[in-house]
Write a structure and sequence with these properties.
Blueprint (H helix, E strand, L loop, with lengths): L4 H15 L5 E4 L2 E8 L13 E8 L1 H11 L5 E8 L2 H9 L7 E4 L6 E6 L5 E7 L8 H6 L1 H5 L3 E3 L6 H13 L5
Parallel strand pairs: 1-4, 1-8, 2-6, 4-5
Antiparallel strand pairs: 2-3, 6-7
Length: 180
Amino acid sequence: MMDGRMDEWMDGWIEKRRTGAELWQDVNGWIFREVRYITDLNKNLDGRMHAGHGRQSCGGVGRNVADALIKLGAHDTRFISVVGNDEPGTAIFQSLKGGGGTLKRSSDVSTASCTVVVDAEGECCFIVGEMEAFAAIDINLIRKYQTQLEAASIIVIDANLPAETMALTLDIASHAKIPG
């Protein structure tokens, strides 16, 4: 949104939340993130093991936006996505309380994930991503939830989705005049 439209939309959104008016948000995209911190000062990428520690979390821009909207009181938020029928998928599903009924679990894919390796100075050395699951967020899934998308006041799209999925979602948003 350009030329102050975002500020105008945000003011309207805040007013709708204050007055209890109905509001929908629809979000696409998800990931399970693992961060590994190398504590050795000398890192060599020659196959050796380095001392370190790690943590895991649910993440991804789309999932994080959906989570923030829910925490801010936008309980009608819908998270349109696909997660694997695996441990990371369960964590994401539970973190979003099912995504408003639009979060699909599938045994055909592993939940998208990435491992970030960070050195002792806090610099990212590299990221290993397993993103094949994004292909499961296809035009058939978008068509299945087209009614929810058309009712949304805003749609957030992950740019890692297949091009035809993004094109259909943008077409739906354009025809429904979202944002209004």
